[in-house]
Amino acid sequence: MALARPPSMATAERPRLSLAALAGKLLPGAGSRLVCSYDGVTLQAALATRNGGSITLSATASTQAADLAQAVAELRRACTTGGTQPVVACLATPQVVTVCLDLGVDPAKPRPAREMTELVRWDMESEVATAAANWTVTDLLALRGDLQRDCIADLHAEAAQEGLQGNGTIARRAAEIAVERGLVTREAATAAGRALSRLVTTEEDLICAWAPQPAGRSGGTAAWLCAAIGRNARDEWQAAFADARLRLEWLYPAAGTATLPLLRAQSGTTREVLVEMQGATVSVLVASGGRIRALQSASARGGDGAAVAAELCEKVIDPRTGRVAVAGPAAWAEAVRSGLSSPVEVVAVSADPLPGLAAHALGLAGRDLLARLPATDPPPPPWRRPDALRWAAVALTLLALAGVETSIRLKIHANQQRLAQLDREFDEMLQRNQETQKQIDAVNQKKRELATLEKQVDETQMQIGLIQDVLMVREKMIPSLVTALQRAVNDDVFLLSISETETNSSIFELRGWGLTDTAVHLFTSRLAQSVARLGLNIGPREDLRRGRDRLDVDGYLFSVRLMRTQVAAPPPPKPPSPTPPRRRKT
């Protein structure tokens, strides 16, 4: 029997109106989140933007920087696209441990938040300790890519032969053996040790969250999806994001984020087993009707986790199971299939946790599909703050001042009404004066434009006269020059080109070819006699050298310039026509 949806106070994420939440909605990029995922070594992120009922993810950026603040700052710069900078972020990390607990609390009638916190913390302390024991130095070295997973089992076996006890102690000795053999560097082992100290929670102060599931249990219990993280770990992440000018809104468990799109797509009573691997932990979730019914986690035992995942699946597979969805590559799904004895369909799905995380953070997935933790403590109610009385006195004082100010403002308003009437009359007179002044300015502008046009007409007429005089001179000179060239040219000289240069004092430049230099000299002397009547003389030959003409005949190439002997002064400009005197207005 399906239970009704519980009220919002059944979880630790009770919605509240705060200035931070209001600012997050009003700031640019309020419809976007920087969704981040951490696997113990690599921090990856993408900018998720909600467009109605869909989500757009930017390109994924990742970093393995040891300093969390530096890593978050790098991802923020990498995910800033189109000028839109993220201001709110959420993070999925294996430090948030999640389990499905059977609690004697009816989701329709939840207990107060303080009682629920104590009840959940009682069970989560042991779960957090168990999850912390799953992480080893060798697992982190494998995640960093410094150590092959095939070598982990042999290193652990060699370390166990020395009589060591405890998985963590054996793993540390195995890492030392790997350093001694040169399989990994000392710096890599040290970095893995620092990452391990961040992942292992040893404190007792846990922050818990819970989300009710509609699956009922026998004996009056109900399924609750619970999550917990150490306060120091949460504060460390919150400070890292704050240093990068980001407000960390929610902390999510790593388990369940990659397969969250499958939960959203489920319908009816379809039963599926979802397999995920987060770092050194393998998680198996049983889902039906779009909700999580059970969740189990175990250590990958230094391998790739396929055998562990198969063992966990065997415990939860029953005749109602439709398929097993493995979040990972097809090879890992095939390894899980080979370890199962039940004939059930095994499919590989995407192991990227960012799409599911973005859908839940932006409100496109059911809020109770995952148990998430607020990144900051909720503020206390106003009446419990130590400065409440002081602010109450300040408020009363402000109210009294407001009353006095209101009476003064009423008197001022009456005076302003009388002044407003006078202002309107003054504005009307001022407007009439301004209109009159505009008309006077327009008349003066027209007068200036008329004088400018008259001046332009006079200048144009003068230029037309100059052009006409020049054309008359050229009309007489060009035919005379052609006639002079015809008289000067003999049978042994050919003109190749004639051009008008107008550089220095020369006006024409002649280029030609002569059979002999004597023919060239004869041509220039005849030309000098012919152009003398035109007021021109021949300048020195700039070029006289042997060369061939267009018919490839050997001879002399030459160039001659015709230069002015006198320059005629341009005709004087015509005086402008006198402007008749203007009549005075009477």
From TrEMBL:
Bias-annotated ranges (Pro residues): 569-580
Coiled-coil spans in chain: 412-463
Keyword Coiled coil listed: yes
Keywords: Coiled coil
Keyword Coiled coil among UniProt keywords: yes
Location of the region described as Disordered in the Swiss-Prot/TrEMBL record: 566-586
Protein name, as recorded: Uncharacterized protein
